[in-house]
## 1
Amino acid sequence: MRSESPVLQVDQDDNEFHTVVLDGLRRQPRSIPPKFFYDSRGSELFDLICTTPEYYPTRTETGILDEFGAEMAERIGTSCVLIELGSGSAAKTPLLLRHLSGAAAYVPIDICEPHLQRSTRRLGMLFPQMRMHPLCVDYTRLHSVKLDGYEGRRRVIFFPGSSIGNCTPAEVVQLLRHAAKLAGADGAMLIGVDSKKSHDVLNAAYNDAAGHTAAFNLNLLARMRRELGARFDPDGFAHRAYYNSALGRIEMHLVSRRKQFIQMGGETFHFEDGETIHTENSYKYTAQEFQQLAWAAGWHPKMLWTDRKGWFNVHYLSLSAGEATHSHRQGR
Ligand code: AVI
């Protein structure tokens, strides 16, 4: 491996989980943001979700990257610095990195340090010539990321997996603005976005028969017990996920199976039977809806690749207005 930097921690707040959970339990309706799913176990469960037959986004996006990775590399420039947000296990990254022969560096950014270490090691072995520059930070705090060096190289933000769908539309615009700042004047972005489609397909994707999505959702409660000393019966809650068509999003909730309470930090939180903690939104966008958000954040949508069924889009955004625009390309 050419040069593997140690994982750098950026601006972490050890108490954040505690503060945010208490705050989320105090509010009505109750909610805890999805970034807290991703402890080590949660990240493993997410990888399992991605292997289920129902969860189509991973294999669909993988197919697009496999088919069009070379074209994407040509658009972003093969000698760029590739900055991946929420890199996780970086399973799809080789499909792009294999075409970036002259890349200055690969900069994975992820909240989960063990995951970051494992994936950086694996990619370092696959691409020994490439500099690995991992950063352990929550990508929703992108504004706190400073990346020095790499002058004269184009910076390209790679954000696959449709993780952008876990932000509200207003947060999307803010995150895309921060990404534009990090990318700099002639920067670019490749971003995977899940599309609107049949409600049956969407509902099945978040209610897989193997129960991995349920375990992923319920793991949040296990974390609260283990890490925050929260006291309650873990069997007292169940997983619920459904497509909210009015808002164009999947919603995930933890539903109280009966009247009960959670004790934490000296406070008691009463739950009615059927009351929920809202744990995740996963927004789905048509190509045009997403492009509107990109425009609002200062990006120029220049191209998009999609699969045969149009279930998933990978958008190419540029900060230079003058760059050529191409219509979209659909997979086989
Ligand atoms: C990471 N993110 C894009 C996933 C999604 O589809 O919203 C997280 C997930 N939640 C349940 N299943 C997958």
Note: Residues 136 and 314 are 25 Å apart (CA to CA).
## 2
Amino acid sequence: MRSQDLVDSSLVTGAAAGPVRVGRTRVAVIGAGPAGLIVANLLRKAGVDCVVLERHTRAHVEQRARAGLIEPRVVEMLRRFGLADRLLRMADAHTTCEFRIDGRRHEINYSAAHGGRRHYVYPQQELVTDLVAAFLDAGGDLRFQAADVRPHGLDTDRPWVTYVDGATGETTRLDCDFVAGCDGFHGVSRASVPAGALTEHSHEHGIGWLSVLAEAPPSTKAIIYALHPDGFAGHMLRSSTVSRFYLQCPVGDSVDNWPDERVWAELHKRLALRDEDWTLTEGPIIEKRVLDMRSFVVEPMSYGRLYLAGDAAHIITPVGGKGMNLAAHDAERLAEALVAHYEGSDALLHDYSATCLRRVWRSQEFCQWMTEVIHASRDAGSSFRQRLAVARLEHLLTSPAAAAVFAENYLGQD
Ligand code: APR
């Protein structure tokens, strides 16, 4: 399917000056995060030729620590395609989470409230590592260090993508049938769509989080969401040696204001239990970032022959652990729609955006609810909203029906 001929760049519309290699594939996938790698693996398994273009090195994408909570339906999808072997061996299954309010623990067994389904805790970079290996082992074409990637002709039946090989400096033009834009929020795919063709819905929550990754074994078996008068604190799980913590902070705060001693002092204070012994295990901090809580959705998730998936199309607050799961859902839907196209039906491609957006908005609504609830003790906007958030939390902790709804949202609908 693929060809690589050296031609003069003057023959190639829209390409940079200098010698240009020309290649051909059916689907050009931009970005090797969870979305792009799942699209590529599923296409490969169905025998649909694709090329993945990733701006960073393999080492970079395999070490980039991000999310870690995987919904049961995503694990099942990966298993079905033979992509979950290491995940199922290494990942911990989780069934409960814990809210700490006024120094008291309230556990929710969300698994019991939703038919025994369980989350898996598996760091995103481990999943990315598995997906890169699976794709390359199957003979997949993944080009790292692809610089200046640019899609062209998206509103035609013959789009193409140009990029510069980071190692050789050579420009390549890749002709294709479709472009899968899986290059995250700051990627080039969505930015290539003409102004006005897509509608953007965006929301700033007015809440900042200091995100901390520490080489510290978990001090808990379940994720902790702690409400404290000084702000929210979270203890998330990653592995037996690494934990993620979050501390609510002012929007636009700087990590310079958060020396390690202050991080640990605030975590000890906000996670403390009143009537029980509990120890927070410290460890070297390996990453600190300030996140401003924001939500963003673009509609539709396609333009001409470009289909957006994952963070390229939507950003969600990290509170419900949905970002990676939505990326995986989009990727599965996009791959099946592209495979159906080559089998003669465009119905799934036609419905791709609407199908994905239904799940995206359900998740946005849940994460908005959860964002308001866990920040109830501070910066809820007004004392009225603060009281509403407390009422929601009380409902969740006292009503089996409310717990069942939470469980369905938290675990993700099948
Ligand atoms: N050219 C080529 N590659 C690019 C470009 C570009 N112009 N811009 C970005 N990329 C690559 C990034 O280096 C990254 O590897 O696209 C990939 C996008 O991956 P992610 O940001 O992980 O996005 P996605 O695959 O949609 O996964 C969403 O990742 O951001 C987290 O928490 C989020 O869990 C969610 C998940």
Note: DSSP finds eleven helices and 22 strands in the chain.
## 3
Amino acid sequence: MSQPIVIAVDGTAASGKGTLAKKLAKHFGFPHLDSGALYRLTALAVLEAGGNPANAADAVKAAKTIDFTRAADPAIRTDAVGAAASKVAAVAGVRAALFDFQRDFVERPPGGATGAVVDGRDIGTVICPDATAKLFVDAAPAVRAHRRWLELKGMGIERDERALEAELVARDAQDRARAVSPLKQAADAALLDTSNLGIDAAFAAALALVEPKVRGQLEAKPRG
Ligand code: CDP
């Protein structure tokens, strides 16, 4: 059997990587894994249990018991859970507990698909260093804050846009500074700055970067 195709989409908070990853998945007919949901579910579990997200024991215990069927729960999408997710994500034991789930997803994509799309912070660097195609998505902080403001407004949550921007910047700084699996562009990832691109233009740009790599793997002689 040839290796599954893996499209790794990493990037900063609210950069649009999730939207792009979903659209790429739909285009190629692959399942999509939002790895951030794993950290958000872990954070929510810690908060619901009355624990401290920065406490390694609390965070690891939560990571081992998360219920992935709750990934669509809007409760994990709040900025408070996002901030707590960034805290649990810095705990090495949490990342170790979530590693196998992510590797299984790309090695045996659900539904017998021939590939998978995963978005996150360390997909191209740590989870799938051999990914077929790697994108690193970024945008100016003010643009990202506006997108997140609109997203939260759509969920009925009113936030101050400047305060959101400060939170996103602080979370990125925390994600970049951590010792384990920090947020960073893989050496072989293509940078996609979506500051001046709407969804359709960003998707067209992403596809132009990813499609040749996918074609290259499909045309290569199957290994083994
Ligand atoms: O949607 P947004 O970009 O705000 O965040 P997310 O992708 O849902 O991730 C929430 C937090 O989880 C991030 O700030 C990271 O600290 C952490 N995370 C991570 O460490 N590694 C991943 N592969 C995905 C998320």
Note: The longest strand covers residues 5-11.
## 4
Amino acid sequence: MNFNLSEEHLAVQEAARDFAQNELLPGIVERDNAQQFPAEQVKRMGELGFMGMMVSPEYGGGGMDTVSYAIAIEEISKIDASASVIMSVNNSLVCYGLEAFGTEEQKHKYLTPLASGQMIGAFCLSEPEAGSDATSQATTAEDMGDYYLVNGTKNWITNGNSSGVALVIAQTNREKGHRGINCLIVEKGTPGFVVGKKEDKLGIRASDTHSLLFTDVKVPKENRIGADGFGFKFAMSTLNGGRIGIAAQALGIAAGAYELALKYSQERKAFGKAIFEHQAIQFKLAEMATKIEAARLLVYKAARLKDEHKDYVQAAAMAKLFASDVAMWATTEAVQIHGGYGFVKEFHVERLMRDAKITQIYEGTSEIQKLVIAREIVR
Ligand code: CAA
């Protein structure tokens, strides 16, 4: 296995790092406090090519590999995990899903604006009563001949308000179970499609998370992705890749907190020397560096397997499971190293600690990742 990053990977890393430092860091505490969607910054992410990194240039994307994508997500997440989840959902759930399974017409109409960042997408699977148990969809997409009639509620939708288009998973034929589920492309502004309540969250507060309400929404048949009944497979297949994005996000959150803690430990003095000189702090940082490197290798492995068109289901689940646990633990240690300063907002580590938690929950909880891994092991 080649552990070296290519020239192209290094260029992506530098571009993402510069963007995060220069354009995401200013105002980040204020955006987090006010739960303010980073509209200008997301526009810039589109201009810089971060919103459709893996999409073919034919549809306005960057044509890059998954490793480049993971590297960019890591760098952006070191500073701003709200921006990185907006980017991750758009890239790996919406754009990837459309490119892999959409029709040529769907790609030209929706993928091209999504990949260039002119429009943002949302992925709507979770419901008030269906999170981990994703086959229990209560939202219905009734087949009316040349259109579907959609009714139901989707919960905790990233980009809920800011998106121009939503991929909505809904049940068409309950008797067929998960094989009766469809995924429909629903445009914002379609009559009956309403953005519901904005969630007041613990972390990733600048991303806009909403419930979405559908009442007798007419969606043309040509907006169905794949064959009739393909919707659940579509959701699972896109989530496999999405989990690499969230694993990279967790890695970035952990690495960002580690970098801040390392710097602080060399500046802060206690008992006559920099706190880094105290073994208690050295050991924390040594353990953080080791676990973060292990998480990075798992993320790169999953990304490389995807790039080589090999089975990456287990690798993606392992990367997300491990990296999200490392993120939660490493950010907590970073707060501890900062002491009282770690508990206040201007030092950034408390935000990273709050942001870390969601990586153990969304795109499949840690418990679901263990289930996926266990099934793959016996398979
Ligand atoms: N890849 C491809 N196909 C898969 C799959 C995978 N990882 N996992 C399951 N499938 C397929 C199965 O092959 C099966 O299809 P067939 O019967 O045609 O062979 C079908 O899906 C149903 O699978 P199961 O019988 O295994 O279904 P289950 O109900 O026992 O378990 C589950 C499925 C793995 C628990 C699944 O429901 C799951 O992943 N749940 C978590 C949902 C999730 O990740 N939600 C995240 C919300 S999106 C989000 O967070 C985005 C955001 O905004 C950040």
Note: The longest helix spans residues 231-267.
